[in-house]
Write a structure and sequence with these properties.
mainly alpha
Amino acid sequence: MGVGAIVALVVLAVVVIVLVWAVMAYNRLVTLRNRVENGYSQIDVQLKRRTDLVPNLIETVKGYATHESQVFQNVTEARAEAMKAADSVSATPADRAQAESALTNALLALKATAEAYPDLKANQNFLQLQDQLSDLEQKIAYARQFYNDVVQKLNTAIQTFPSNVIAGMFHFAPGQYFQVAEADRQVPQVKF
């Protein structure tokens, strides 16, 4: 076997290794992108369940706290905005997070209102709805954490060498974190 044949085999081996690496890097990026989409879908499912629960919660509280109409209106408006963001094709995770944060704050105000009514706090339907809401909040928190973890992995893969070469060639876009806007981090003030 001549020197030319050995050089050709070495070059061929290097080309094969680079191609195998490129395929593996591409597949990893696709997998991460799909996990980001799946994570966002899981958040969407839990948030939808929460918005579906809100009308029942409002109706239960209304029966006891009829003069708290502003609280009910705030929750209803926040729910409508959250549903609008969920249905919007152009809504980013940041838009969705802001709308959901407003709903969370309105629900906290509703819970605080309920604290002023001992009969309501003892109502089985209210207690059951409150338990469901608490369970959903935990699931939403878990889904957000999973989503943000996968976004971080995707963004790291897109930004680090050598996988950034493949990411650039195939136009992989970084994911957006699902996070609360700074203005929405304030604890809502409830006044009676």
